[in-house]
Amino acid sequence: MTEKLATAYQMGSRLALLFDYDGTLTPIVASPSLAVLDQRTREVLNHLANRSRVGVGILSGRGLVDLRHLVALPGLYYAGTSGLDLDLRGKRVTHPRAEAQRRLLTTVMEALEGVVRHYPGAWVEDRRFGLTLHYRQLAPSRHEELLEGARQVLREYEARLRVVIGLMAWEVNPAIGWHKGTAVRAIAEAIGHEALIFYAGDSANDTEALEVVAALGGISVRVGATAPPAEYRVEGPGELLEFLIGLKEALGDGKAVATP
Question: Where is 199: in which H helix or E strand?
C-alpha cells in the first residue's frame, strides 16, 4: 500500500486518504463518547493533510458536528451521517431531502425509545439526519429480545429507511440515495485531478465506500476480521497508525511540489 501511494505521489498524482472513524482510526469502545482519537494519529493525519496534493477525509455514521468535534482538525474533508451531511473543507453539502426526513426520524426514534426503555444498557442516539440503536452495554442474554422489538418497529417503515447492522449498533438513516460511497466520490471530486483514493473501514456501513474505491482503481483496506471485503487488511487502529507513520516517512520531508 505504502509503495503504491508513494510512487503515485512522487509521479505527481494527488492522494485522497479517506477513513472511517470508530473501529478504524479509534478502537471500538463501550460508549461513542469514549472514542477519543489518539494524539499520534491526530498528528500524522494533520501532517498529511497539510501536504500539497494530499487530501484527508473522515467518513462516519456519526453526525457531522460530533465528528468534527472529535477529530478537531481543520483542513480535512468530513462526511457525517454516513454521507448525508458533508463538509468539503468549509463547503457544507447536505442531501437536499435530509431535513424533510426529520419528522419520519422523530417518529421512528420515539417508537424505538419505547422499546429500549425496557433494556438497561441500550439507547437510541439522535444524529439529526439519522439514528443509531446502541446495545453494547446491554446484557448479552437480552440482545435478541431487544432486536426483535426493534425489527417490529422498523418493519413498518422499511421502504423509507436504510438500516445497516453494525457491531452491537444498528444505523438507521432515511433511504434517500446517499451513503459513504457517494461521499467518497464527492470528496475525490473536490480533491480533483483523478486522485488516487485510499479508504479504510471496519464495518458494514463502509461497504459502498470500499466498493466505490475498488471500482475507481483505488486502494481499499478492511480493518479487523469482520470488515467488508477489501484489497488489503490490517488488524486494527494500531496497525493502521503504523501504516500512516510509514506513509508519512515515504512521502518525504514535506517539500512537495506546489499544487498547480
Answer: strand 196-201
